[in-house]
Amino acid sequence: MEAMQKIADWLVAEAPFAADMGALVGGLAERLLAADMPVSRVAALIETLHPRFVGAMRVWEPGGDLRLRRATHDDPLILSGKVRFTIDTVLETGDWFDMRLDDRRVDEYDLLPTLRSAGHTHYLVMPIRFREGPLQGLSFATKTPGGFTRAHRDTLEALRPHLSLAMNIVATHTMWREVLKAYVGNVPGDLILQGAIRRADVRRLRAALIMTDMRGFTVLANSSTPEATVAALNSYLDAVVPAIDKAGGEVLKFIGDGVLATVAIDEARDEAAACGAALTAAKAIASASPNVGPGIGVALHVGEVAFGNIGAGDRLDFTIIGRDVNLLARIEKLCAAHGEDILMSAAFAACVDTPTRLVARFAPKGFEREETVFAPG
Fold first, then answer.
1. pTM for this predicted structure
2. Distance of CA 107 to CAs 90, 117, 215, 267, Å?
3. Which sign does the torsion angle of CA 288, 293, 295, 297 carry?
């Protein structure tokens, strides 16, 4: 009892400050083992508020192994309706799912045959009530020949209020972090959570800058249904965003059919490396250009931007501004005029170790001097 009280105290005093649900699950599992609870697998099954994922499962197994498994909204296994999930039974009944893995019903469920093959003998799912949304689940498996005893389950049940408190706090923090990152990006999302929420709270960043544009979007939007326009726009973004993510970049803004992104110059990545990563992303986007309507234009520049909050009253937007952003936008407008998928400023061209060719000299509106633009090759 003393060991379980220590776990309950940990769940109230320390677990709510865990870095994420994986850290909470791992900390719980290790403490249960130390208290002679024969767990061989512990997993949190949490519904997420995320544009790509319907749910996430953090799985702990002995040796400190922690895994993250995510189910997408379009997962064919989920959409088929042919497979039963233990969490669905919990949602239907509001009660524990409790099954020994020699039960003939094991084969009706998605996960249980795999657990049985791995030597587990008993599987429990504890319902966890969240402040908002449906019930969530915390599962426990054991490889003990006799499975969990009634005393084991009663002990876990006694911990349930403490577990619910800790999991609610960690999951809510994770949800807000993921929602913010989905809408404003990773760095702005972290800054907002750290308190950067006042108007005119602006910071400076030196970075390689990327701006893309879907050619012919206005004509498409004017001549197509809203559904067809959104589908075309998403197809275009499917070509752009993953390429930027893969290069270590950060998408900061969607501006209609435009995308504004940065590759930060910092201690881990110097100017040449950042520009090289941005050019790699641009080439990947350009390779997909023939499959996206009339094509995609990509502008590249390197410089300094100010990013932070602008707005009025209770409505703010996290954005980036500055001379170099304005120049980037002017360069992007030249892509279609010169029939180029990628154009870069002279400053950017000087940073990359790759052949470039002069495309044009132009006088950007609002700028004091003439600029030159280059293309790869």
1. 0.70
2. 18, 11, 52, 52
3. negative
Q: Provide the 3-class DSSP secondary structure of residue 215.
A: coil
Q: Which CATH architecture has domain 186-376?
A: 2-Layer Sandwich (3.30)
Question: pLDDT tens digits, residue range 152-196?
Answer: 999 999 999 999 999 999 988 887 777 777 777 777 777 777 776
- Which residues sit opposite 41 in a β-bridge? 141
Which residues belong to CATH 3.30.450.40 in the chain? 2-184
- Provide the CATH number for the domain formed by 2-184 in this structure: 3.30.450.40
DSSP string, 109-171: BSSHHHHHHTT--EEEEEEE--SSSS-EEEEEEE--TT---HHHHHHHHHHHHHHHHHHHHHH
Distance (Å, whole) CA 153 – CA 156: 5
Separation in Å, CA 332 to CA 2, 219, 258, 260, 342 = 67, 18, 10, 11, 8
Side-chain-side CA neighbours of 242 within 13 Å: the count stands at 7
The CA distance from 273 to 279, in Å, is 10
What residue spans in the chain does CATH classification 3.30.70.1230 cover?
Answer: 186-376
